[in-house]
Every structure is written in structure tokens, then in C-alpha cells.
């Protein structure tokens, strides 16, 4: 770690009714990877937006390279050498890699844009980063991981001195994360200051030098990563202790009836001859690498994708599922990994979202019975401990964890007995995560049957009674929780198929 | 296991590549249509018919090239049809009633078009009205302005042979009995120039970038508002230019007409591979696509189908073109 390059001191920022940042401090040194942690809504993003001029601060000082600065736009910050690699990638899918990297500052030859020179410069950049991407490739054809590399290349080409990574690993596969870390270490070598925002505790331990923790808009403290434990950090984040005990044995009674039976399911090339059984009161974990076909299996069972062949039995009766409404009628509910796109209607209220899957129960003639709707919504807000000022709140204003609870309420209102949770805690912070876990266990204890698709090994091992492992569209293994280990699951997840 | 992934990627690649060559396919379709009509009807394969087809294609081609730019920004310009008629009315009115030199009147047409383009751009890029709505309003406004200015009467531009009818020579050189459709040459020159603008200049690059991801473009420090407005100004410029070629082929420019012309231009652009969702499109593709529309329009009557049938068939062709666009996008998303 070198000298201090960036200091944010006593930063204060209020929005109408919200004290978003309460005298927050952050210090970044050259050649350091500095983690910025905190639950959703802790103020991390706001702090970074203040840093890069998207929001103006109410008070406090920002010192960059020894001088006090006050940026008024992302462009100004960028020109000074502070760049954010955003969580949602800001790429232009229809343009090439090189055109993306140099957007807004193209090389020109007379009137003409000099694409050749841009390609060469991009190539040089990639060579320096030791990554192999063709600058002439269309951006949308690259994998998410590669696209992120391009974003980083763009940041570097701006001659950045401080790079902020906002949850960079959220959409990456294991190998891509390894590559990302290689590049980050490389940048550290070159004396850049890195701010790394992430929820994943194990990453923080691997890649960062120091951790600054925020909670509810306040600065909690800064730790040296190697001198602190995971629990230290979590305690600072949530201000209370969370126990992450893995399940050691199945909680399902031996004689629990089979509520869902899938036989030789085939749908597209991602779901190939998948069979399994799901018992009442069981949490069945679906593990596997990205692209293993787990989500596709869930979508096929839910009728979102066409089933080519195979049989589905619900409570022992063979059913035909051609569309989500067939699935819903059979008591199957699906909680998508992409909540914002498929799970909730963000600009509707909690109450409206709650009754969305079974409007017909809340009709009074041709009118919607608003009173009844709000009653049931309130019941689930209470039951699930959803944090919302009222059931009339728009869902868009809730945090990720609470949005997830609204989706759960929706399916419970529908009386679904089979719930498919697809990455139930993606983008949800640690505190809310354990609440979702508790809730899932409660649901299972109440007799619901749950399929849980998860890419997080700890989640699979913590929650599942039994685990199905998939690889390349096929089921490669099934194992009870008592026998399951990280190693044998990984083994099955990467098994070669003859 | 790796085998499987690689294979599927390759398969999709080739499909997309094939679709990337959409403008080439469209060109083939246009040629095939032309040959079919020629084979089916002796009346169609006459030089005079060819000349007429070309005469009535220029204004659609010009509008099509123009509207390609707003379309690529993921917008649209519905005002070009009525706008074009409005500019032609104003130009003709200046020539007829104010002894305005033809050249000046033509300049006014183009400037008027650009002014409406600025208005459209302002409404869309600055006031953030949905392009469909904003340009639907200017469509109505231009139709009204044209009628108001000329007082509701049809206006003929100087007819062939008159002193100030030189503007007709821009599109068609008449030397005794030989007629040279020189306009086609200009159209090709314009296609080449605008292809260059779209593919190799900042204007084109940012037009595509806005259609691809406007916010990301803005965050990259691009003056998004300026380039977004510019797309509509380019469109307005071409609507103005189209008004001149339109005035050259119709006996009288009638106020209150022009609605529906924009759909021929937009339809041509879409057949030519411009994506309604933005970011994708080419000037050459639009050129070929407009020809498909023009050939259907001119050819179907020759094989005994009335104008009503022509509308139905053109509509069906458009559905087909949009479906191809949707399927293409879906395939890409699956990846």
C-alpha cells in the first residue's frame, strides 16, 4: 500500500426525508484494493455517486491527489481519473468492442472515424491486460465476463487512478471471477487505488486489503482484511450476530408424500432427460455451474418454456403443463432469479403485487375488492415481516429482500404448494438473506415443497434437504444433505458426460 | 461437454450472419419481384413504365433514407409524409404567387423540413416525449400549416417546358424522345454518402449508440441531446428534399394529403433491416427495402390487383419483415 490518493471526509448528504449519508469517511491508498461493504441501502452507492459528481454533497470534503475536488458530472470525475465500472454494464450492444471503449472520444481522420486506429489501440490495451478479446467483435456477442473486461479496459484507457467496481462479480462465473481478480491484482501492482463493492464475503477475504463498512448511511469503521474474520465484518454490517450453520441432516420425514414427480423431462438443448422427485416439506437444492440448465428446467416445469417430452406428476396425478397458467392452476409458483423482470411489477403497490396471481379471489362482481386485497397483503406483510411503510407503498421503493418477500406473498396468496426459488438471495444483503432463509425453512415446515436453485455453494449446503446436481442440461447426481460436501457436489457439477 | 456449447454457438453465428446480409436478400427479393411482374404483364416491361416507377420512387427513397436515422435511435418520425406535402405546397405557393425563383423555393422546402426536424428533435430529445406521439402531433401540425398557408387550394409546381421548370431535370433529363432517369444516379450517390455518414462519422456512430443504450452513451460524455436532435433534422432535411421530387411528379400538390406516405418509407426501412428497437440498420438496406414497396405498389395493378389489394399485400410483407426482426432479436437474446 502506498500513499493516500483519495480521502472522503465527513461526507453528509440528505434527500427529502432521508439522511442518506451521515458523516461518512473513506480513505483509499495507491496500490490498495479497498472493500466498501454494507447492506443494501447502507449508502454505498450514494457515497460513490457523490464521489463521481452524480449527486452533490451537503457537506464534507473530497481530496484527490492532494487537492480538494468537487465534481459536477461523471465526465468530470472520469477526466480527473476516477472511473466506476457499473453493476449494470453500460455497453452499447450494437457497436464493436473498440467502438465501445472509445465512445465519445473517437480517433478521427478528417471527417471519418478512424476505426483501424481504434482497433489497434484497443488491442494494445488488451495486450497490456493480458486478455484475449477481438476489438472488432460486436459487444453483444461477448459473454458478460468479457463485456466487463471491456468496461475495465475502457476505465484504464481513461488513465484512471481510482477505479470503483460496483458488485462486479454478481453476474460472473467462477472462472470469470478468477480472471477479474487477476486483472484487479494487476491494477494494484500498477499502483491504482481500487474500491471494491461486493456482498460476497469470501471474495472480500481473497481480493481486498482493507474493508470500510457502512450501516444505515453511517460510517461504522475500517478494518485490515487479513487481520479480521468474516464474523467481524458481518457484525459491523448488521450490528448483530448471524449464524450460518449448514444443515446436517434432512428435516423431511421418511414417509413424506411425493408432491412433484418429473420424469425424463426434455425441453430444448438445456434440459435433457431430467428426472427427480420432490417431497412435501422438503427443500430440494439444485446445484450446478452457470449454464447447467437449472433455470431452464424450472422454466419448463413452470410452463414458461415448451416441454418437448417427459411427464410431470403433481400429487401423483399426471398433469399437462403448456403455459404458466397451467402450472399455477396445479399449485406451482416460480420466483424468478430476475425479480425486476419477471417477479414483480415495480410500479404497482405491495397490495396489488400480492394479489396479482389470483385476482379472481379478490373480485366483487366486476370490481376489485380493494379492502380485501389490502387485508390479505397486510396479513403477509405481518407474517413475512416485510419492511414497508404500508401495503400501498410502490414495490420499487422496497429493498431487494423485501421485494422478494412480496413475491413470496404473491405465491402464498395463490396457495401454491410447490415453490420454485431461483437464486432466492441474489442481490440481497446478508441481513435480509438470513430472513429469507428462515422464511423458506418455515414454509417447508408448514408443508410446502420447495425447489431452490442456487449458485452459491454455502446456500445449497445450508438450506437443502437433498441436492440435485446438473451439468450441461443433464442431471449428473443426487445426494442427501448428510453426505453432501462442497467437493462431491463440485465433482458432479463438472462431470463429463459421455 | 464443451462440444455441445461450441456447436450451438457456431450454428447461431451463421444464422445471424445470414440475417446480417438482410439487405442483400432484400435486394434479391426486389429484383425477383421486378422479374415476376415483367414476366406476368407485357404492359409492365415498357420503358415508360420503368420511368414512371422510378419517378414515383424518389420521394419514398429520400424519406426512407431520412427516417432511417430516427429509427436507428429507437425512435420514429411520422411527420415526414404530411410534412413533405406541406413543404411542397409552400414551395409551389412561393413560385406561383410570389414570383419566387425555383431555387430559392427549393431551399425553403429543405429548410422548412429541417425546422420541423428541429421541432421533432426538441420534443423527443429535450422534452422527452415518446417519438411516436411527438411526431404524430407534428404530422397533424404540418398537414394543417400546408393548408393554412396556401388557403386550401391545390398548387401545381411549374410544368415541364415552363421557364422555371428546370428543377425537373434534376430527376429526369429529356432529350427529344429519349428520357434519362438521372434521378436514380443521384439516389445511388446519396445512398453512398449517407452510408458513409452512418458508418464512418461521429454522427452515425452516435446515432447507433443512442439507439443501443442512450444512458450509457450519455455517461460516456457524448452530447446525446445534440445527436438525438440531429437524427430528426437529417430526417427533416430528406423530407424537404423529397418534397421537391414529389412536386416534380404530381400534377398538383393537394393540401390535406400526405398521410400514409411516411408508412411506405418506414415500411421500406424496416423491410431493409432497420430494427424498430434501435441500434441496427443500414442506408443501403433501406434503399432496397423501399424498392420492394415501390415495386409492389406499381406492379400489383399490372397483374390485375386493385389498390386495395396492394395495401393488403404490402401490410402482409411488412408483418413478415417485422417478424424477421423479432425472431432475430430473440435468437440473439437466447445466446
Structure report:
The complex is a heterodimer of chains A (498) and B (335). Chain A has 498 residues and is α/β, with parallel strands linked by helices. Chain A folds into two domains: 4-238, P-loop containing nucleotide triphosphate hydrolases (Rossmann fold); 258-493, 3-Layer(aba) Sandwich (Rossmann fold), CATH 3.40.50.300. Chain A contains 17 helices and 24 strands. In chain A, the strands form six sheets. Chain A has a six-stranded mixed beta sheet, sandwiched between helices. Chain A has a six-stranded mixed beta sheet with strand order 18-21-22-15-23-24, sandwiched between helices. A four-stranded antiparallel beta sheet of chain A has the order 2-1-4-5, covered by helices on one side. In chain A, helix 15 links the parallel strand 21 (418-422) and strand 22. In chain B, 74% of the residues lie in helices and 2% in strands. Chain B is mainly α. Chain B has a domain at 42-258. Chain B is built from 13 helices and two strands. Chain B has a two-stranded antiparallel ribbon. Classes of the chains: A alpha/beta (498), B mainly alpha (335). The A-B interface holds A 74-75, 78, 90-95, 99, 103-106, 108, 111-113, 115, 140-141, 269, 291, 471-473, 496-497 and B 1, 4-5, 8, 196, 200-202, 205, 208-209, 211-213, 215-217, 219-222, 279-280, 332, 335.
